[in-house]
Design goal:
This protein is 35% helix and 18% strand. The longest helix is centred in the N-terminal third of the chain and has 18 residues, at 37-54. It has eleven helices and 14 strands.
């Protein structure tokens, strides 16, 4: 869950005293601006209790059935339209590309999901839609991406959008995905989830598991693929293999690899929904970094600049890692290349 100013301090107390009252609360803002490290840690401790109480029924369901949130894979003849099943990697790659490995991306696609409006008692967010709209403009104008923005997406709508890009993309394409919204981490099993706008606190069926996110990444055949996740606990998506520096390889050699990267707004931690200019602290730094990149910039360098900007002002740690289970190969990295 993305942090809203002082909301969780108030919510923890409210849930303990009255669930009905908690459902009607609106979060007050910090009087002193974005909190420092000591304030952040105090809020985090209070919020942990609030999260446990708020999601207690859904969490109990997941403990009894860890697959409660999982989406089945599409069966032969079953359409992935409607987001009721996950397209398989083999289905997505049925039409091979004729492009030569190592050549620049033929097409560039981006799918950006921004979730503001959540159903009570899950608090709404202030910045995700503004974040994805501004990032979309940079991707279009500076990098030549064809961008689809998905606003206030429920689970089926989110799955459908990712299924569609899996069906449309080819190996010689570049694909960028971005999710901005609530997230959650089950501490005991270290499984992370996206929380779509139609998610419930009573059941996990409306949540999207990291396991399914990895399957969706595996189904997208593009050799250049990155997921940017601006949500709490999104760092769990980067755990398979951390990347500290960009691959020391020629561009044409990088483009021969299957590169599946995740850039997250934080580690296994809550992250801020507020920052500068109406954007989250992470999104603001990402926008400024992308606007200032050179003609060809590895994703690891973008991450390093974003992390430096975020950590100067807020105690959260953006992460960068490869998803081996989705097909990432050694030496790969995502390349941000300006259009002429």
């Amino acid at each position: 869950m993305k942090m809203r100013r002082l909301f969780w301090l108030a919510l923890a107390s409210a849930i303990l005293t009255s669930t009905a009252q908690a459902q009607m609360m609106r979060p007050p803002a910090f009087m002193g601006g974005i909190p420092g490290k000591a304030q952040f840690q105090a809020i985090q401790m209070q919020r942990h209790q609030a999260r446990t109480l708020l999601y207690r029924e859904a969490l109990e369901e997941l403990r009894k059935n860890p697959a409660a949130a999982d989406v089945p894979e599409c069966q032969p003849g079953q359409s992935p339209d409607g987001g009721q099943c996950l397209v398989k990697a083999a289905q997505a790659a049925e039409t091979p590309s004729a492009a030569t490995p190592g050549a620049p991306p033929r097409r560039r696609f981006a799918v950006l999901v921004g979730n503001n409006r959540y159903a009570v008692p899950i608090p709404s967010l202030e910045t995700p839609i503004a974040d994805v709209e501004s990032i979309a403009e940079v991707l279009r104008s500076r990098f030549g991406y064809q961008v689809r923005i998905v606003k206030d997406a429920g689970k089926a709508k989110t799955i459908e959008a990712l299924n569609q890009i899996a069906a449309d993309a080819k190996p010689d394409d570049s694909v960028l995905l971005l999710y901005a919204g609530h997230g959650y981490l089950m501490d005991d099993v270290k499984m992370g989830y996206w929380i779509p706008v139609d998610a419930s606190v009573k059941t996990a069926k409306g949540w999207i598991s990291n396991s399914d996110i990895s399957k969706l990444l595996a189904a997208i055949p593009a050799r250049q693929l990155i997921l940017i996740s601006d949500s709490c606990y999104s760092g769990t998506l980067t755990k398979e293999q951390k990347l500290v520096q960009g691959a020391q390889m020629k561009v044409e050699d990088i483009l021969k690899q299957r590169s599946v990267l995740v850039l997250s707004s934080g580690d296994d931690e809550p992250v801020s929904d507020e920052g500068k200019g109406g954007h989250s602290i992470f999104a603001w730094n990402l926008i400024k970094t992308l606007q200032a990149t050179g003609s060809l910039t590895p994703g690891a360098k973008v991450w390093s600049a974003v992390r430096t900007g975020v950590t100067k002002e807020y105690p959260q740690q953006p992460q960068y890692g490869a998803v081996i289970s989705a097909g990432h190969t050694e030496g790969g990295d995502f390349l941000f290349q300006q259009v002429n």
